[in-house]
Amino acid sequence: MIFTSLPGPPQVEEVILGSGEVGENLRDGLVLFELSTSSLLLARRIHGVVAEKGASMLDAPVSGGPAGAASGQLTLWVGGERAVFDKHVELLRAFANAPHYVGAIGAGIVTKLMHNMLGYSIMLSLAEAFSPAVKAGPDPLDLWEALRLGLVGKGSR
C-alpha cells in the first residue's frame, strides 16, 4: 500500500508519475490511496497508469484539516472500485472516522471539490446576510445564535 497526501495537482503528478517516483514502483496487488485534493483528469490519468501495472487506486481526498486529524474526525470521500474500498475500509477507519464510498474513480475528488465549493458559497452567503443585519442593529453573536435555531442551523437534518 502507498498513501499520498500532497498540496495539489502539480505535486500529485510529480510524485506519482514523475521519473523514479511512485508510478515506477507500482506492481500487481499494490493499492495506491491518493488522499490529496487534486484534479479529476489527473486522477483518471493516474488510474490508467496504476491499472496498467496491475495495481489498484482509490482517490480519497481527506477533509477535516489539522483539527480533524488531531481529533480523529476526518472524512474521506472515496472513488474507485467498490471491492477495493470494501477490502480496505477498516484500514481507512484507522485514521478517518468517516470513509464514505461515492463511486467510480474520480468521484472522491469531485465530491471533495463540490464540498469545498459549497462551503465557500455558504460562508459568502453568511457574510452577505450578516452585513446588513448587523448594520440594522442585532449583535452578531446574538444573531448567529438565533439563526442557528432555524434552517441555517438545522440544515437538512
Give the secondary structure arrangement, pairings included:
Elements: E1 2-4, H1 9-17, E2 31-34, H2 40-52, E3 56-59, E4 62-63, H3 65-71, E5 75-80, H4 82-93, E6 98-103, H5 107-135, H6 140-147, H7 151-154
Parallel strand pairs: 1-2, 2-3, 5-6
Antiparallel strand pairs: 3-5, 4-5
Describe the structure.
The protein is an alpha/beta fold and 157 residues long. It has one domain (2-113): Rossmann fold (3-Layer(aba) Sandwich), CATH 3.40.50.720. Helix content is 52%, strand content 16%. The chain has helices at 9-17, 40-52, 65-71, 82-93, 107-135, 140-147, 151-154; strands spanning 2-4, 31-34, 56-59, 62-63, 75-80, 98-103. Strands 1, 2, 3, 4, 5 and 6 form a 6-stranded mixed sheet that branches. The longest helix has 29 residues, at 107-135. It starts with a strand and ends with a helix.
Helical region count? 7
Q: Spans of 5+ residues with little confidence (pLDDT < 50)?
A: none
Please give the radius of gyration in angstroms. Answer: 19 Å
Largest sheet: 6 strands, mixed
Order of helices and strands: EHEHEEHEHEHHH
Considering the protein shown, what is the CATH homologous superfamily?
NAD(P)-binding Rossmann-like Domain
Q: Write the CATH architecture name.
A: 3-Layer(aba) Sandwich
The shape, in one word, is elongated
